[in-house]
Each structure stands twice: as C-alpha cells, then as structure tokens.
Amino acid sequence: IPLKRDLVRFHVLHTQKEFFEFEVLNTGYIPEAELPHLFDKFYRVPGSDRWKQGGTGLGLSLVKQMVVALDGSISITCSEGWICFHVRLPNHRPPPMPPPTPEPEEAQEDPE
User: Fold this and answer.
1) Can you give the pTM of this predicted structure?
2) Is 102 contained in some domain?
3) Is residue 19 included in any domain, yes or no?
4) pLDDT of residue 42
5) Residue 20 contacts residue 98 (beta carbons within 8 Å)
6) What is the dihedral of CA 35, 57, 22, 76, to 10 degrees?
7) Structural domain total, the chain
8) Would you say residue 85 lies in a domain?
9) Is 38:28 a contact under the CB 8 Å cutoff?
10) Which strands sit side by side in the sheet containing 8-15, from one edge to the other?
11) Is the pLDDT of residue 20 over 70?
12) In terms of CB atoms within 10 Å, which of 49, 67, 92, 108 comes out highest?
C-alpha cells in the first residue's frame, strides 16, 4: 500500500570476493502476514485496489526466479513506512569464452 510520496532508494551493502548484497527500498506498507506470499505467482495483497496499483502479480515471482537461477537469495521486510528488498548474489564471472574453432577446410577434389 503506497504512501502519499513514493520514493525509491538503492543501497549497495557489501561487495566481497564471494558475493555482493544490495537493497532496494520504496515507501509503502505491506502487512507482515502478507510478506511470505509476495513472491508467489499472481499474488496480490488482499484489499489493494488492482486498478490503482496495476500489475498482475508476476513481477516479484520473476525477480525471485532470476535471483535463484543466479544462485542468490532475496527477502522482503517492511518497517517504518519502507518496504525493503534485500538481494544477495554470488560475485563470480563466467569463465572466458574459448576462441572460435576455425571451420575445417572442405577437401578440394583434383579435377581429372
């Protein structure tokens, strides 16, 4: 449930060799009992006006799927008028791509 003045904040918490963490905060309030369900597909907080808030209830589910696919974690807290999404992702880079293998030249037939 958004407050009158919507604000969004982004904080990088930790960057270490193994992982990095960040938070995305925005103003609003979500009842404590609803927090565990926010990552469920098509979930909408009961009593929220879907015409004013918009959305289908898929966005947070997709975010969680992406974070988990990257071997990370995401959690939500709500206090003092702020909704906080805490994300932790591994800090590794994929190995470099090997150079392309040249295509073998087609055998040329000698004309007889």
Assistant:
1) 0.65
2) no
3) yes
4) 79
5) no
6) 0
7) 1
8) yes
9) no
10) 8-15, 19-27, 82-90, 73-79
11) yes
12) 67
3, pLDDT greater than 50: no
Which residue carries 């470099």 as its tokens?
Answer: 96
User: What would the pLDDT profile of 71-81 be if each residue is shown by its tens digit?
Assistant: 999 999 998 88
3-state secondary structure 39-83: CCCCCCCCCCCHHHHCCCCCHHHHHHHHHHHCCCEEEEEEECCEE
Residue 23: CATH number of its domain: 3.30.565.10
pLDDT of residue 86: 93
Q: 88: closest CA among 70, 104, 112, 106?
A: 70
29 part of a folded domain: yes
Length of the chain: 112
Contact 45, 28 (CB under 8 A): no
